[in-house]
């Protein structure tokens, strides 16, 4: 990272901090992740907006990424599953906080582009899988945390089955209005649901594109 990029990332982290209280580790993760590499228009990279990427998909607003990341409470956990890798920015932020990240994407082109970005950035703890995330990623389950980066009316049961007891799942839930929703799996039968901020994500679709 050049000094200029470093300063821009830090300014972004400070700006996000005007809206939500970042933990020191999450603040650092934003400082260390060059958003420019993930967006199509680098002059917009450090604005608090969502942006279109390829294949009709969107890279989330950095403020939304921050809210999802904070809700996930994932500092130092072993493994996280993300559904909807997209540009890979959210996964890159998570890679600075937890040990291993598994990110599933149903559009092959996006999965490949995200992989290339992680190589350029020398990020080695993200594993990208081209597949339908409705089924999770069984081979590495169970997970400490699961993050859905696409909106659904109902979180697929399979995903809760791949979450450890005591684990947290965060997802944008709802149809007309979506809310960042946090689920804590106290036991197989007892899953606590906490509704947080309103948000806007593209829908969780079925099947590989
Ligand atoms: N986390 C991303 C935001 C991605 S937008 C980022 O930081 O850029 C949501 C993504 O979810 C899209 O790329 C879309 O293709 C993907 N998606 C939607 N339904 C999916 C499914 N069933 N399985 C895997 N990915 C899915």
UniProtKB/TrEMBL annotation:
Record-listed E.C. numbers: 2.1.1.77
Protein name: Protein-L-isoaspartate O-methyltransferase
Family: Belongs to the methyltransferase superfamily. L-isoaspartyl/D-aspartyl protein methyltransferase family.
Keywords: Cytoplasm, Methyltransferase, S-adenosyl-L-methionine, Transferase
Single Gene Ontology BP annotation: methylation
Keyword S-adenosyl-L-methionine among UniProt keywords: yes
Entry's Gene Ontology molecular function annotations: protein-L-isoaspartate (D-aspartate) O-methyltransferase activity
Gene3D superfamilies found in the cross-reference section: Vaccinia Virus protein VP39
Matches recorded under Pfam families: PCMT
